[in-house]
Design goal:
Helix content: over 70%
Strand content: under 5%
Number of domains: 1
Number of strands: 0
Distance between the termini: 16 Å
Largest sheet: none
Length: about 140
């Protein structure tokens, strides 16, 4: 149980880091379209300079990458069939909620229904994993 709880909390942390940083990354790129250079190479470097000298982009980017580090560390001890859907679905929910808090369009009733269905799916994944771990423990004794 303690190991499973730690895995679940790690996946929740990943989801918050990924999901909450997505709308902030989107906001941080505002103004990128105004960067204009004469050649493709100089355009690329000008865009990279714009992004990495812009703290409104750089901070969410670093938080997002921290989420990736936690995710890969968590994958070393968690089943892929559990970790991938839970992390991605919760990230999606965090992205929607953070976007809404920042004033973005939410998607209406369909988005709310989708969020509830996503939560139901995550709940089924968690229950299934708990049942599977309980079965393994009973077979081991």
């Amino acid at each position: 149980w303690p190991c499973f709880a730690a895995e679940l909390l790690s996946l929740l942390l990943v989801s918050v880091l990924w999901g909450c940083s997505n709308p902030l990354l989107k906001r941080g790129t505002q103004g990128l379209e105004t960067v204009a250079e004469t050649s493709r190479v100089s355009q690329l470097f000008a865009e990279i300079k714009f992004l990495f000298l812009n703290f409104r982009y750089l901070i969410p980017f670093l938080l997002n990458q921290c989420g990736s580090l936690v995710y890969y560390y968590t994958l070393s001890s968690t089943e892929l069939s559990f970790a991938v859907p839970v992390a991605n679905a919760l990230s999606f929910l965090c992205t929607l909620l953070t976007g809404k808090l920042l004033g973005e369009e939410f998607g209406g009733k369909k988005a709310v229904v989708g969020m509830f269905l996503t939560m139901a799916g995550i709940t089924l994944c968690v229950i299934s994993s708990i049942d599977e771990q309980d079965s393994r423990q009973q077979n081991a004794t």
